[in-house]
């Protein structure tokens, strides 16, 4: 426990990683500690944002989180929700299958894969025709110790192009909006990276990774009834932190006893002196703030690229017929702007109402396609509605209500070697300054929460010293 001298800690970034850090700091620091969360925008939560559509609460960002953690047991998000007395409000999706849209047809997603990478290439249901003869034992592990490669490079080498293009790409793209040929195996499918350093074939590596998964029985995904903003608001309140909205942090510098933050617009600067800092912002602003402290760390952090996406929410008339699916994914090779669709009121039973609207949410755009999103909302809505109709094989009626949520530069694109670069950056930073969030430790609400909690523990230990 840190000594009883009044401590002040700043958390820069009010997304779920920053709020989780603030809450964990409240646990670790003396009762009189002063915590402040600086969020440049006017709202907390980052990409957790709940909106209204057709009288229902519909997510404008992340819609759910993993129920189980990587080591088994409950995920960091479930644990946080329960701590915040939201356990009774946790809900799960219906057991309705999802599909892939390939060649104008909706085809069930094959089971038994690890983020689209199959263990049994004979069970792909015609989605892809692998070249299984490539996956032979060459007398050594697929990867050397510590080696990281792009997911696509490994799978293409062992199974051929179709498995990547039709199966792995859309499943990875549903999470990262990126391409398998550019995404790190170590970050996106860490279980497979681990077993690929032991097993001699991809088939064996996938099977070993699946066997190691210690997922608790029950639903894979969980959401919060009433929306993710409930989780955000509860975490902020429980942290007891002072919340500063709309006041950017423009610089961080060392002082004799801690850190000085330079705040606000340049013509009217303010400062805040604190004992420690958790930096929970995206890679580029993090790189700018680190530049004066460690050029090496700033460079390692700043190379991370991002994909932009737009979410289109539509409230269709009651009774609008849709396929008996929770939604579908679209491989990039299909050429559509729509990369995924969720039939919200079918997927989430707590929203279902036969007399109410049919809610559909479409995700538009992939990494490197920013220019395809550079149209006004009316054009994007028309494009989404038309493509969805073409993809499901039936024209959809105009929505009674709609919204478009743009997430410019919203999804990190982890290139091979990402974890090594982040470890280097962290090692180059002085004690008392910690990094947290999706830019460093992976997307997904549980990953961000765990990242924030670890950062809080790191700066708490530094203050003890």
TrEMBL record:
<dbReference type="InterPro" id="IPR002937">
    <property type="entry name" value="Amino_oxidase"/>
</dbReference>
<dbReference type="GO" id="GO:0004729">
    <property type="term" value="F:oxygen-dependent protoporphyrinogen oxidase activity"/>
</dbReference>
<keyword id="KW-0963">Cytoplasm</keyword>
<comment type="pathway">
    <text>Porphyrin-containing compound metabolism; protoheme biosynthesis.</text>
</comment>
<dbReference type="Pfam" id="PF01593">
    <property type="entry name" value="Amino_oxidase"/>
</dbReference>
<dbReference type="InterPro" id="IPR036188">
    <property type="entry name" value="FAD/NAD-bd_sf"/>
</dbReference>
<keyword id="KW-0274">FAD</keyword>
<keyword id="KW-0285">Flavoprotein</keyword>
<comment type="similarity">
    <text>Belongs to the protoporphyrinogen/coproporphyrinogen oxidase family. Coproporphyrinogen III oxidase subfamily.</text>
</comment>
<dbReference type="InterPro" id="IPR050464">
    <property type="entry name" value="Zeta_carotene_desat/Oxidored"/>
</dbReference>
<protein>
    <recommendedName>
        <fullName>Coproporphyrinogen III oxidase</fullName>
        <ecNumber>1.3.3.15</ecNumber>
    </recommendedName>
</protein>
<keyword id="KW-0560">Oxidoreductase</keyword>
<feature type="domain" description="Amine oxidase">
    <location>
        <begin position="16"/>
        <end position="459"/>
    </location>
</feature>
<keyword id="KW-0350">Heme biosynthesis</keyword>
<dbReference type="InterPro" id="IPR004572">
    <property type="entry name" value="Protoporphyrinogen_oxidase"/>
</dbReference>
<comment type="function">
    <text>Involved in coproporphyrin-dependent heme b biosynthesis. Catalyzes the oxidation of coproporphyrinogen III to coproporphyrin III.</text>
</comment>
């Amino acid at each position: 426990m840190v000594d009883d001298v009044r401590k002040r800690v700043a958390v820069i970034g009010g997304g779920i990683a920053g709020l989780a850090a603030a809450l964990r700091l409240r646990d670790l620091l003396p009762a009189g500690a002063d915590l402040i969360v600086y969020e440049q925008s006017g709202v907390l939560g980052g990409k957790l944002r709940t909106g209204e559509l057709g009288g229902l609460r519909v997510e404008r960002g992340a819609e759910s989180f993993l129920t189980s953690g990587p080591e088994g047991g409950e995920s960091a998000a479930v644990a946080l929700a329960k701590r915040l007395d939201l356990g009774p409000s946790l809900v799960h999706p219906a057991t309705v299958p999802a599909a892939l849209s390939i060649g104008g047809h909706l085809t069930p997603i094959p089971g038994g894969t690890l983020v689209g990478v199959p263990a049994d290439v004979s069970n792909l249901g015609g989605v892809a025709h692998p070249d299984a003869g490539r996956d032979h034992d060459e007398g050594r592990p697929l990867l050397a110790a510590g080696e990281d490669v792009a997911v696509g490079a490994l799978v293409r080498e062992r199974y051929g192009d179709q498995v990547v293009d039709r199966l792995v790409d859309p499943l990875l793209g549903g999470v990262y909006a990126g391409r398998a040929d550019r995404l790190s195996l170590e970050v996106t499918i860490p279980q497979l990276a681990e077993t690929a350093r032991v097993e001699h074939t991809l088939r064996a590596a996938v099977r070993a990774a699946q066997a190691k998964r210690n997922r608790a029985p029950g639903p894979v995904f969980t959401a919060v009834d009433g929306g993710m903003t409930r989780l955000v608001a509860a975490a902020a309140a429980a942290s007891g932190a002072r919340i500063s909205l709309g006041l950017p942090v423009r610089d961080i510098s060392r002082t004799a006893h801690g850190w000085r933050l330079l705040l606000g617009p340049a013509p009217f600067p303010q400062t805040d002196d604190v004992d420690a800092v958790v930096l929970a912002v995206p890679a580029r602003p993090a790189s700018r703030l680190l530049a004066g402290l460690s050029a090496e760390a700033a460079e390692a952090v700043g190379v991370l690229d991002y994909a932009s996406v737009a979410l289109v929410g539509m409230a269709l008339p009651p009774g609008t017929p849709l396929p008996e699916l929770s939604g579908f994914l679209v491989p990039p090779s299909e050429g559509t702007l729509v990369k995924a669709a969720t039939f919200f009121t079918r997927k989430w039973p707590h929203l279902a109402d036969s007399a109410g609207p049919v809610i559909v949410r479409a995700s538009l755009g992939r990494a490197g396609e920013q220019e395809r999103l550079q149209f006004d909302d009316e054009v994007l809505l028309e494009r989404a509605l038309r493509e969805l109709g073409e993809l499901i094989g039936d024209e959809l009626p105009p929505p009674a209500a709609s919204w478009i949520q743009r997430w410019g530069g919203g999804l990190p694109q982890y290139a091979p070697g990402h974890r090594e670069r982040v470890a280097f950056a962290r090692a180059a930073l002085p004690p008392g300054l910690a990094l947290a969030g999706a830019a460093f430790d992976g997307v997904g609400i549980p990953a961000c929460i765990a990242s924030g909690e670890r950062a809080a523990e790191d700066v708490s230990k530094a203050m003890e010293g």
